[in-house]
Amino acid sequence: MNELKAKPIYLDYQATTPTDPRVVDAMLPYFYEKFGNAHSRNHSFGWEAEDAIELARGQVATIIGASPKEVIFTSGATESNNLALKGVMKFYGKKKPHLITTVTEHKCVLDSARHLEQEGYKVTYLPVQQNGLVDLEQLKAAITDETALVSIMAVHNEIGVIQPLKEIGEICRERGVFFHCDAAQAVGKIPLDVNDMKIDLMSISGHKIYGPKGVGALFVRRRPRVRVVAQITGGGQERGMRSGTLPTPLIVGLGKACDIALNEMAEENARIMELRNYTLNRFRERLADIYLNGDEENRVAGNLNISFAYVEGESLLMGIKNIAVSSGSACTSASLEPSYVLRALGVDEELAHTSLRIGIGRFTTREELDQAVDAICNEVERLREMSPLWEMAQEGIDIKSIEWAEH
Amino acid sequence: MAYSEKLLDHYENPRNVGSFDKNETAVGTGLVGAPACGDVMKLQIRVSADGIIEDAKFKTFGCGSAIASSSLITEWVKGKTIAEAGAIKNSQIAEELALPPVKIHCSILAEDAIKAAISDYNTKNGKAEVEAAE
Ligand SMILES: Cc1ncc(COP(=O)(O)O)c(C=O)c1O
Ligand code: FES
To answer: What Cα–Cα distance (Å) separates residue A54 from each residue in A31, A68, A365, A369?
Structure first.
């Protein structure tokens, strides 16, 4: 415990990632001597910044197989998702007022959809299967002549599952519907190709891929052309889709982060996958009654989302203070709901209260994972000794057979 | 969220964790909360012939504040009469542990649990009617 106190262990790579030192190095000159405004057309300060931004635009385009002209910079995936959903629906909505998304999307997609609903657009929220994946037949059935856009994320932030993007893209293209993909958790983690996958819009975030916070991008296809109504207006930058002076250092960082990810993805994924399997096996060897949430096969390398049955997640987190992981759960009565994502998978509510998300990333070591597994297992065992539900389970009492007074 | 030292102490070194045989006549058992809500508290008391709570034990599935609340209340009820134990208010627990507002209901659960244990004991020992008659 004291040893752990000395150095906290970061296992929350889906929340954010540390900026890669190589990214920071690339950014620094653009804070100091190369501080120009890329939109200043009359002097070398402006040209220098513009060159750097165009290089970054190319780097971002390359990692998703797009053309640089199809990439516009934003403040992050939240803004990109807002622009994709609202921008497309507002442009095409007169004839095609219908949007399809899924119940497990990130809050910023769901909230944009809700706003559109309030303005009179129609939204279908597709359920997901128990493994977290969308059912393609249900998707097909949901598309109508009025559907303008399908928005489905690539890699899930909580449960790490990878949706069948290529199949979704085929379906959308065939029916003449645009496909927007929130790839905040996917870029640099899985191979992506917007042409092969027939993706029409794609959201990207800097800070999920070892780049800086406060920057992201939206891919907007040019052939066939996708039009969006700008949500931020002004000087008409980014081909009118997103006004505002471009933050050169952040954009340089995003580009560099994509460049590194592209070069190192294969090797890095193999290493992280190995660590993940090792960690999962260690948990399984030591503890009974643990469940992996989300599909084990179609899953990004760095994500483990595990329910430790009979132990409430918040109390577990409290016992492992020096390990930074996230819990999607806490007692409902404290207005902290158990994760809407786990509930959408049909995970029993009592199990949804017992889950932890463990995120493994570029700088994670085996030693850190060993310490984390030991600490988590010790705490799970301690709390199970204290848990009336564990006691009942050991006595063979089915907790579902008891009439609980739910509040 | 910063928790008080007392709360952390009860969470890290909970007092009176365990179970009595719920079939014993001298034992009263309260089981409150619900797994789907993320909290279940089991609180047991063992009562002497002269109506004093000799011993108490708990098991809790819930957040750290719920664990600390149940640990604290087992300490408090020991040596008290049933009537005294039944008069403990959740606000006293919340104050002692300096619970933040979102955690007040964890202390309510502890109050409910001791009341449920007392009621179970009374039912078992035919005391409910006696008290009502008085
Ligand atoms: C899947 C997904 N979409 C969108 C976002 C929002 O990204 P940003 O923080 O760049 O706005 C996140 C991160 O929280 C995410 O995980
Ligand atoms: S038991 Fe619900 S938050 Fe404490």
So the answer is: 17, 8, 35, 39
pLDDT in tens, A238-266: 999 999 999 999 999 999 999 999 999 99
Task: Name the phi and psi angles at A357, rounded to 5.
Answer: -105, 125
- Does the CB of A398 have a partner CB in chain B at under 8 Å? no
pLDDT at A297 over 80: yes
Give A315's contacts in chain B (Cβ within 8 Å): 11, 62-64, 66-67
**What would the pLDDT profile of A133-190 be if each residue is shown by its tens digit?**
999 999 999 999 999 999 999 999 999 999 999 999 999 999 999 999 999 999 999 9
Query: A4-31, pLDDT tens digit by residue?
Result: 455 899 999 999 999 999 999 999 999 9
User: Which atom number of ligand 2 is nearest to the Cα of residue B39?
Assistant: 1
In ligand 1, which atom is closest to the CA atom of A76? 10
β-strand partners of A218: A72, A203
CA distances from A68 to A307, B2, B54 (A): 42, 47, 77
Please list every residue in chain B whose beta carbon sits closer than 8 Å to the beta carbon of residue A353: 35-36, 38
Please report the ipTM that was assigned to this predicted complex.
0.91
pLDDT digits (tens, 9 = 90+) for A78-137: 999 999 999 999 999 999 999 999 999 999 999 999 999 999 999 999 999 999 999 999
Percent of chain B's residues with pLDDT above 90: 84
With the most atoms of ligand 1 within 8 angstroms of its CB, the residue from A82, A152, A157, A204 to mutate is: A157
**Between A and B, how many residue pairs show a Cβ–Cβ distance under 8 A?**
98
Largest CA distance in chain B: 48
Rounded Cα distance, A192 and A165, in Å? 9
Q: Which of B37, B87, B128, B130 is catalytic?
A: B37
Ligand 1, atom 14: closest residue by C-alpha: A15
Cβ separation of B102 and A335 shorter than 8 Å? yes
Active site residue B63: no
Nearest to B36 by CA among B70, B66, B62, B17: B62
Sign, CA dihedral B116-B122-B124-B130, equals negative
Q: How remote is the CA of residue A331 from the centroid of ligand 2, in Å?
A: 5
Q: What is the pTM of this model?
A: 0.92
Tell me phi and psi for residue A355, to 5 degrees. -100, 150
Per-residue model confidence (pLDDT) at position A107: 93
Query: What HEC string does chain B produce?
Result: CCCCHHHHHHHHCCCCECCCCCCCCCEEEEEEEEHHHCEEEEEEEEECCCCEEEEEEEEEECCHHHHHHHHHHHHHHCCCEHHHHHCCCHHHHHHHHCCCHHHHHHHHHHHHHHHHHHHHHHHHCCHHHHHHHC
B34/A404 touch (CB, cutoff 8 Å), yes or no: yes
Distance A388 CA to ligand 2 centre (A): 15
Distance from CA of B128 to the nearest CA of A (A): 22
A404 at interface of B, judged by CB pairs closer than 8 A: yes
Taking each helix axis from N to C terminus, what angle separates A44-64 and A248-286, rounded to the nearest 10 degrees?
A: 30
